[in-house]
Write a structure and sequence with these properties.
The chain has a domain of 118 residues. The protein is built from 20 helices and five strands. The protein has a three-stranded antiparallel beta sheet. A two-stranded antiparallel sheet has the order 1-2. β3 and β4 form a beta hairpin. The protein is globular, with a radius of gyration of 25 Å. The N and C termini lie far apart (59 Å).
Length: 513
């Protein structure tokens, strides 16, 4: 048995001081100046007013003609109790309403809860990266990259639905990761008793938690269903691989036919219950849209969903910043959500200054992440071809990318925007740190002939030198990503900067910001 050395006092302090410090920095860039601009920007015009009526009616009410000016001025009374047709479930707007319940109907109130959730994604990503790599440094790099990423920051400073969706999807995958050690141990123990099929496992609380979480994600936006489906399939595949490694003879049939239905029960019904529960306000009142379509509340809810599904199937209108998913890879047309330009004396820092909030990730991180994802795919394919051990952490990250990005590729005609990519961003960062982790590992040389002691020592010296070179290279790349993240941070916060510096950020001619 290997005895692990006790961590030093400095290491113990770092375990909590590092994530706390990075989280504090993330909170600072998300909360500082959150009340500005003091107007409804981009799709806040929908979700903020819906959140206000949810808070007061229990369902989304209808607003009169051009209510934004009065609402921004503090007059929040311009709604009626007539139910309004809305295209997304209510949970994300309920989350927005929590800040409004605390701080009122002003911009600080309607953005506060989203900013908090965006901040909480940072320590959550730290925990996941730490568990996957075992490295405080790489986990800190992952958290820091998310803390200052302009896409993550901008989506934390605007009251849209995608940041709660991203947080809940990431949380569900964290729960799936926590399920792994106990499940692997239980399968190994059960395989010793039943070598043909292995055990049927009902006690998997983390899968139950993942189901509830993905039900809540779907209660924010229906795209949470993609994550539910992908994670469900990933769980079955992982169970099959675990049974095979444990020596189970009928590993595939057992994973699909015996454990599969149990995993379905643990994952899907809790998700469904959580989803329906998010509609409690609509179900418990009688004024919501389509609420009177049936005396049976659940049937009326079904009727409403049919109308929403019809709406989503026809979302293909033109928009200046529309960007199909294939364009997200190079980020050809990032969504501009807010722009301010001041001239002369109004700009205290230059003759002309510009401030923008855009759905543009750190480009070096994003494009480097695309390369990292391709590298992980190649590793998985190589493992399958050579029948070597498939790395579960890498497969889980690719499953996250599959759940949050690939489904949008299947809908090329649907109107979509680059800010949807905030759900993909944490998995892109995880791909980067996993590749960095793999490159930083010392690789034991394989000597084909009977080596002499001098040959062994020379090869060990060369191996150590190559390892140090790779570690230095990955450190430089990660630092470069962090520096570029800071450089692009004004695009996440809307901070004013001299026009010349603003133009220096426009790396691609298609960035019409």
């Amino acid at each position: 048995m290997t005895v692990r050395p006790m961590p030093s006092r400095a290491q113990r302090i770092a375990r909590w001081a590092v994530p706390v410090s990075i989280t504090a920095a993330a909170a600072a860039v998300r909360l500082a100046g959150l009340g500005g601009p003091d107007e409804l920007i981009f799709d806040e015009t929908y979700y903020v007013k819906d959140a206000w009526t949810l808070l007061h009616l229990g369902y989304e009410g209808t607003w009169g003609e051009d209510p934004n000016g009065a609402f921004e001025a503090g007059d929040t009374s311009g709604y009626s109790d007539e139910g309004s047709f809305v295209a997304h479930p209510p949970l994300g707007k309920w989350i927005i309403s929590l800040g409004m319940a605390l701080f009122g109907g002003g911009p600080w109130g309607w953005r506060f809860a989203i900013a908090i959730i965006g901040t909480l994604m940072v320590p959550l990503l730290y925990l996941i990266a730490k568990r996957m790599t075992g490295s405080v440094r790489l986990a800190a790099a992952a958290a820091a990259l998310l803390a200052i990423d302009p896409l993550a920051v901008s989506m934390s400073r605007i009251a849209l639905l995608d940041t709660p969706l991203a947080f809940l999807v990431l949380l569900a995958f964290w729960f799936a990761l926590l399920d792994r050690p106990g499940t692997v141990a239980a399968i190994r123990a059960g395989a010793r008793r039943d070598g043909i099929a292995g055990p049927v496992l009902w006690r998997r609380p983390w899968i139950l938690a993942a189901g509830v979480t993905l039900g809540l994600a779907t209660s924010v936006k229906w795209s949470g269903l993609y994550a539910l489906a992908v994670l469900g399939i990933a769980i079955v595949i992982a169970d099959a691989i675990d049974r095979r490694r444990a020596g189970v003879t009928r590993w595939a049939e057992a994973a699909i036919g015996r454990q599969g239905p149990v995993s379905f029960v643990l994952l899907v019904p809790p998700a469904l219950i959580a989803y329906v529960a998010s509609w409690t306000g609509w179900l418990a009142t009688d004024g919501g849209y389509d609420r009177a379509s049936s005396s049976n509340a659940l049937l009326a809810l079904w009727n409403y969903h049919r109308a929403v599904l019809s709406f989503h199937s026809g979302v293909n209108s033109d928009h200046t910043y529309a960007s199909p998913a294939i364009e997200w890879i190079p980020m050809l047309n990032p969504t501009l959500m807010y722009r301010e330009q001041l001239q002369g004396e109004a700009c205290a820092i230059a003759d002309s200054c510009v401030g923008v909030m855009a759905a543009l990730p750190n480009p070096v991180l994003w494009w480097g992440g695309v390369i990292a994802i391709v590298w992980l795919v190649a590793r998985i394919v190589q493992s399958a071809v050579t029948r070597t051990r498939i790395r579960g952490r890498e497969a889980l990250v690719l499953a996250g990318v599959l759940a949050t990005y690939v489904p949008w590729l299947l809908l090329p005609d649907r109107t979509m925007f680059t800010f949807y990519a905030v759900t993909v961003l944490p998995f892109v960062i995880l791909a980067v740190v996993l590749v960095a982790h793999a490159l930083r590992q010392e690789r034991i040389p394989v000597l084909l002939s009977d080596p002499t002691l001098d040959e062994i020592q020379r090869e060990q010296t060369r191996t150590a030198a190559r390892t140090e070179t790779r570690r230095a290279a990955t450190t430089i790349v990660l630092i470069a990503m962090l520096v570029v993240g800071v450089y692009f941070l004004p695009f996440g916060t809307g901070w004013l900067e001299p026009e010349a510096l603003y133009r220096a950020h426009l790396w691609l001619p298609s960035w019409y910001l």
